[in-house]
Amino acid sequence: KAGVTQTPRYLIKTRGQQVTLSCSPISGHRSVSWYQQTPGQGLQFLFEYFSETQRNKGNFPGRFSGRQFSNSRSEMNVSTLELGDSALYLCASGNQETQYFGPGTRLLVL
Amino acid sequence: GENVEQHPSTLSVQEGDSAVIKCTYSDSASNYFPWYKQELGKGPQLIIDIRSNVGEKKDQRIAVTLNKTAKHFSLHITETQPEDSAVYFCAASRSGGGADGLTFGKGTHLIIQP
Questions:
Q1: What SS3 class is residue A84?
Q2: Cβ A55–B99 below 8 Å, yes or no?
Q3: Residue A44 — very low, low, confident or very high, per pLDDT cuts 50/70/90?
Q4: SS3 of residue A86 by DSSP
Q5: DSSP code, position A82
Q6: Average pLDDT over residues B9-29
Q7: Which residue of chain B has the CA closest to A39?
Q8: Among candidates A101, A79, A90, A104, which has minimal Cα distance to A20?
């Protein structure tokens, strides 16, 4: 069974731009969560989608948004990028029991 | 909201010895506690998890214990090997499937000395 895939793996943007990251969950998993990982703040929950509906959201500004498609694939978008948005963005695929992480997208904002 | 504290931040052990990492949580409604291992350049990998109706769970050299009364849980790795070197994260949640989000500890950098 294929694991969680995330694209792109690396991304460089400049302040003020926007970015879209993509995640394909494990086949059969309907829950997709997004996390931000930074050296200072660690791993922080952004939001979770299940059957195209956002069920839960972490404490991040409205510049961070996401969506889920009918095939469970998910995208997250960050608008008006700031230097502090530089991080590893992780997607987690969930079944009823637990969550499995993808390799992440490393975003660098210059 | 939930708060998870993890100790120590760095742990160095001799190959073959045991390693113990401890976490405490604040939300008494949390009932799912996974542990993840993250190697350089990779995403976190689930290594073991435990739910609140179980006090201990073991998988080969890895075990996790949970004390719900004291709100703490621990990861035990026996007979450590060089490939155990990585950063380990504990987490807590009210559910396992993702609906409530995972709250993570800050991580423990485990170093296995040859």
A1: helix
A2: yes
A3: very high
A4: coil
A5: -
A6: 98
A7: B106
A8: A79
Whether A35 contacts chain B with CB within 8 A: yes
The amino acid at A14: T
Query: CA A8 to CA A110: how far, in whole Å?
Result: 17
Place of tokens 């791993």: A43
Helix H, strand E, coil C: the string for chain B is CCCEEEECCEEEEECCCCEEEEEEECCCCCCEEEEEEECCCCCCEEEEEEECCCCEEEECCEEEEEECCCCEEEEEECCCCHHHCEEEEEEEECCCCCCCCCEECCCEEEEEEC
pLDDT of B37 strictly over 70: yes
| CB of A68 closer than 8 Å to CB of A52 | yes
Residues of A in contact with B90 (CB under 8 A): none
Residue A13 has pLDDT above 70, yes or no: yes
Of B80, B68, B36, nearest to A43 by C-alpha is B36
Structure confidence at residue B97 (pLDDT):
74
Mean pLDDT of A76-85: 98
CA distance B69 to A79: 43
Q: Is A85 helix (H, G, I), strand (E, B) or coil?
A: helix
